[in-house]
Amino acid sequence: MTVLGSPPYLGQDYGAEGSPPQDRPAFVYRHVVSFEETNVVGNVYYARHVAWQGRCREMFLKTHAPGVLDEIRQDLRLVTLRVSCDYFAELQAFDEVELRMRLAFVRQHRIGLDFDYWAVTGGTDQLAARGFQEIGCMRQRPDGLSAVAVPEELAEALRPFEAH
């Protein structure tokens, strides 16, 4: 697969042409690993992968559902209920990593997101990790958090990235 654009870029949506091996489109966030993200041995610290999921999710909102950011400033909360990551290859400082986020599901107030981490340094792509997040949509009320339906703008923005 060919690497698209020059780093950093974000918000690239894969369509029919240039599709990743999976058969559904992805929101793409590209990241260059820094020294601060590595341990003493020089490998990326495992928790950074989870942080990158959050960054990818935020860039998706900025690009595809900016109105949701306004709701977050008020009383909407996108609460991470579950997160996981399986690691397949080590990453090091200055590696370029492409996170490809896809919608796994929307159920009631919950959203499931799949993440593929592709090391794209050197012209060959290698699957470095695979992750998942389940997010709950909540509103802050005087008596605590309450589950609410996925905001329409967010649901609409996620539709192009769902499994077909």
Name the shape in a single word: globular
- Give the integer mean of the pLDDT values: 87
Radius of gyration: 16 Å
Structural class by SSE content: alpha+beta
Largest sheet: 7 strands, antiparallel
Number of helices: 3
Helix content: 10-25%
- pLDDT below 50 for ≥5 consecutive residues: which ranges? 1-21
* Secondary-structure element series: EEHHEEEEEH
How far is the first residue's CA from the last residue's CA?
22 Å
Beta strand %: 35-45%
**Topology, number of strands:** 7
Protein name: Acyl-CoA thioesterase
InterPro entries: HotDog_dom_sf
What order do the helices and strands come in, and which of them pair?
Blueprint: E1 10-13, E2 27-32, H1 47-64, H2 66-74, E3 76-87, E4 96-107, E5 110-119, E6 126-141, E7 144-147, H3 152-158
Antiparallel strand pairs: 1-2, 2-4, 3-6, 4-5, 5-6, 6-7
Task: Tell me briefly what this model is.
With 164 residues, the protein is α+β, with helices and mostly antiparallel strands. The chain contains three helices and seven strands. Strands 1, 2, 3, 4, 5, 6 and 7 form a seven-stranded antiparallel β-sheet that branches.
Please describe what this structure looks like:
The protein has 164 residues and is of the alpha+beta class. 21% of the residues lie in helices and 39% in strands. The chain has three helices and seven strands. It has helices at 47-64, 66-74, 152-158, and strands spanning 10-13, 27-32, 76-87, 96-107, 110-119, 126-141, 144-147. Strands 1, 2, 3, 4, 5, 6 and 7 form a seven-stranded antiparallel β-sheet that branches. Helix 1 crosses helix 2 (66-74). The protein is globular.
